[in-house]
C-alpha cells in the first residue's frame, strides 16, 4: 500500500489520481498512524513555505511513525517539491530544521549567477537528465517535468544526485539516498513522464 | 529548451464548454472532461479553466464539478470563476488545481490576492485582466464578462496586482477574443515594462507565429481558446495543439 501523507499542505488528490492512472490500486491519503504503519511505500507531497510545511509535518499525528518507517523500516519514501526540500537539513527560505534524511541543503536560486536573465520562481517545463536509478527505468526520451519553485536541492555528496535540470544553471532536480528520494518537480502533473516515474516508484 | 508555456483556455458556461468571440456569441464546444482528456493526450503545457457563468450569477465554484474535471488533468491546472473566499481556494487546491485565477474578485476585493499569496505563495495566484478600448481611445479594465467597466487602466491595475502579491497576469484583450487576429502585442509590451511577474498573453491567437510575436513583446506564456478548439475556416469543433517539436523550434529562446 502507498500512503500519501496528509499533513494539511499540498494538492494530494493529484498525486493519488496519477497513481491510480498508473494502475496502483492500493493508495490512501492519510495522516493516520496505524494506516501509515502498514504502508510499504510513502509519498510526502507539499507546496508552500518551508517553515510552514515543516511545522505542519512535525505537529501532525503521524510524524513519529513516518520517521520510523523512513529510518528503521527503510520503506521507499518519495518527497515531491516542498516534500523533497523537507528531506534536507534545512532551507534558506526559513529557520526550521529539516528532516535531514538526505545530507543536503535547500538553497535559493542565485539569479545573479544565471547565464541569462530569467525570472524566479522557475515555473514551467524543464528537461531532466538522470543517472541510473530505478525511478527512471524505461523513461521516455528527453523527459520533461513541470516545475514551480524558487529554491533548489543541494546535496553534499555528488552520489546523492538522482537527476539534474537547467534553469539559469544546472541544479539537482532530484536527490536520492538509499530508500529516500526527493524530486523538485511535480510528477503528478507531468503527463506520461510523471506517470512513468510514479509507476516505477510503485514497483520498487 | 523552450520555456514559454502554451496554454489552452477552456471556458465553461453553465455545464458545457463554449468559445466566445469578443466575449459574446458563445458557440458550444463540448464536454469539459472530454476536452481535458484530449488535451492530456496532446501533452499540453498547462490548462486554464474559466467558468464564465459564475460571476454574473454570483455563484461560487462548484467544487465537486471542478474536482471531476481536474481529476482527469495530468498537467497543471489554473481555475477561475467567482472565487471569493480563501476557503474556496483551499478546496480547489486540495482537489488538484495549481493556480486560482481572480478576475472580478481582483477588482472588488484585491486583499484576497494578498491573503492567497501569503498562504499559498504568489505562484498559485493569477490576476486576470480583461480590457478593451473605451470611447476615448484609452484602454480600460472590464469585469463580469466584459459587461462592466472597472474604470482602471490595465497598466496601473497590473502594477497593483503585482504589489498585492499576484504571481502572474493573465492579460486578455476582449476585442481580439476569438478573432485570430494576433495578440495585442502593444499592450503586452506596456504591461511587461510595468511589472516583473510573468505575463500570459491571451486573446487573438491564430497561429504559432502569433505566439512568437507575444513572446517578443515580453510574454512568458501564451494562451489561446479558439485556435485549440476550432478548425478554420468554418469553426468546426476540433481540439488540437501544435506538436511539441514545432513549439520548441518556434519558441526557443
Describe this structure in words.
The complex is a heterodimer of chains A (204) and B (253). With 204 residues, chain A is an alpha/beta fold. Chain A is built from six helices and twelve strands. In chain A, strands 2-1-3-4-12-11-10-7 form an eight-stranded mixed sheet. The longest helix of chain A is centred in the C-terminal third of the chain and has 13 residues. Chain A is globular. Chain B is globular, with a radius of gyration of 16 Å. Helix content of chain B is 34%, strand content 27%. In chain B, the strands form two sheets. In chain B, strands 1-4-5-6-7-10-11-12 form an eight-stranded parallel barrel, surrounded by six helices. Chain B has 253 residues and is of the alpha/beta class. The mean pLDDT of chain B is 94. In chain B, 53% of the residues are buried. In chain B, a hairpin with a 4-residue loop joins β13 and β14. At the A-B interface, α1, β6 and α6 of A face loops of B.
Question: What is the element layout, followed by pairings?
Answer:
The complex is a heterodimer of chains A (204) and B (253).
Chain A: E1 2-5, H1 12-21, E2 27-30, H2 33-37, E3 41-44, H3 50-59, H4 63-71, E4 77-80, H5 82-86, E5 104-108, E6 122-127, E7 129-130, E8 144-149, E9 151-155, E10 161-167, E11 169-177, E12 180-183, H6 191-203
Parallel strand pairs in A: 1-2, 1-3, 3-4, 4-12
Antiparallel strand pairs in A: 5-9, 6-8, 7-10, 10-11, 11-12
Chain B: E1 5-13, E2 16-21, E3 24-30, H1 32-41, E4 47-51, H2 63-70, E5 77-80, H3 86-94, E6 99-102, H4 104-108, H5 111-120, E7 125-133, E8 139-143, E9 148-149, H6 154-164, E10 168-173, H7 185-194, E11 199-202, H8 208-217, E12 221-224, H9 226-229, E13 230-231, E14 236-237, H10 244-251
Parallel strand pairs in B: 1-4, 1-12, 4-5, 5-6, 6-7, 7-10, 10-11, 11-12
Antiparallel strand pairs in B: 1-2, 2-3, 7-8, 8-9, 13-14
